[in-house]
From TrEMBL:
<dbReference type="InterPro" id="IPR011992">
    <property type="entry name" value="EF-hand-dom_pair"/>
</dbReference>
<protein>
    <submittedName>
        <fullName>Sarcoplasmic calcium-binding protein</fullName>
    </submittedName>
</protein>
<dbReference type="InterPro" id="IPR018247">
    <property type="entry name" value="EF_Hand_1_Ca_BS"/>
</dbReference>
<keyword id="KW-0106">Calcium</keyword>
<feature type="domain" description="EF-hand">
    <location>
        <begin position="137"/>
        <end position="163"/>
    </location>
</feature>
<dbReference type="Pfam" id="PF13202">
    <property type="entry name" value="EF-hand_5"/>
</dbReference>
<dbReference type="Pfam" id="PF13833">
    <property type="entry name" value="EF-hand_8"/>
</dbReference>
<dbReference type="GO" id="GO:0005509">
    <property type="term" value="F:calcium ion binding"/>
</dbReference>
<feature type="domain" description="EF-hand">
    <location>
        <begin position="8"/>
        <end position="43"/>
    </location>
</feature>
<dbReference type="InterPro" id="IPR002048">
    <property type="entry name" value="EF_hand_dom"/>
</dbReference>
Amino acid sequence: MAVPLQDFWVRKMRSLFVIFDKDADGVVTKNDFLGAVEDELKASMKEIKTGSFEHLLLNVWVEFWGGPDKLTVTFDEMCSRYARLFNEPNLRNLMAEFLKVCFDAVVPEEDQHLTLDGYTLFLRNYGVHPLSVPPSFQAIDTNHDGLITREEFVNAGIEFFTCTADTPAKLFIGPFLG
Ligand SMILES: [Ca+2]
Ligand SMILES: [Ca+2]
């Protein structure tokens, strides 16, 4: 029998799910998920980055959302797929790889870090209002130097998806909706 999922973690996943369930009907379609990357963000990426980003996004859909065949996913289905992160280290590696590509996609080649403006652009893509971004930025900027490094970004993302406790990383993708 499956171990019950930890309540706080489920609430984090809820904050993630609603970003993609824009019409709030309890279902996220594959098109909702893959279409979440807006042209504006794509335009700011190099062509090769766009290709690898879309490829990874598809992998994330297959591993954590609908699976290889389904075109829709419910919240419970998504949760049970993300819960596999607790037992399957290779999935953590995939998630870390995805987060690295996300980071590289929004950070200019010559820079090594994400600014508040860059993170605002990234989260706006997911419908997060610019005024809601600074608390998330501060949560991820763990050494408080006003810049997010790749390592800070990936660590916060992994913590968002794999930590069951209430930590600042709950703000990784914007406001925590509880
Ligand atoms: Ca929906
Ligand atoms: Ca920092």
